[in-house]
Amino acid sequence: MTRSSLLTQSPCLLVAIAALGLAEAHALIWSPPKNPDPHAILNEAREDVRARRYAEALAKHKWFHENALDFQQSLYGVRLSFALSDWRELADKYEPALVALRETRDKARKLVLTKDKTVNTRFHYFHDFESINEKLNESKETVLLFQAIDKDKQEQKLAARIFSVAQPALLKSKQYKLCRKYIEPEKDLAHIKQMYDLNQKFAEEQQLGDRHLDYAQETLSRDCSTLVAMLALNKEPELAEKLAEEAKKFWDDQKFHQAIDEAKKGKLPK
Fold it and tell me: Can you tell me the distance from the alpha carbon of 203 to that of 200, in angstroms, rounded to the nearest whole number?
């Protein structure tokens, strides 16, 4: 009999677990091995969901979110994308997973607002906060927290640091004026070009081929169009036109140029 089936069949044990904290309850359900492999644990969580071992899956998702980077920093992107998507899917099937995901989000919010931590540390907590909100379809929470930080004169350095992460939620809620406060058009366009060049080079040198090149071009189109559209939406048509013409030089592609022209009208990319 598995521990999960034992828990299901033992009401008294469930009551005892409820009296414990959530972390202690998860420890009773599943504990990581001595030398944990984050990749393996994430895959196990997926298998647990398929087998309807939801409690074990939740314990593993929580462990992965809280500990994966201690073992492998390269999992930063996976942790905030695929892993959170899996956790969100589990939450659709298992209410405690939704509760735990929101608790993790709320903990991240508190840590963002902890002023005795470094700006870089708080940035990473904000990235957690924003990523979870995106999975929960609660991006308004990202907007509210950014607005609160923006209003604090002592937090301007943090606001500038986290703006790139908050920007999609801010644009979605039409906070165009607030976005304008944090963009530096010429500098930002130069950075977009620099990243495009690096991605092209990476695609060639690492033999990643068309897939990574497509990513580079899609990112270029999205970022350039967003920058130009923000200027148009803030009623700066001359600057929008100037940057649009500069951006078109980066890539001689008809669809890209059409996207830039649409951005000059204030149309944000989808």
Answer: 5
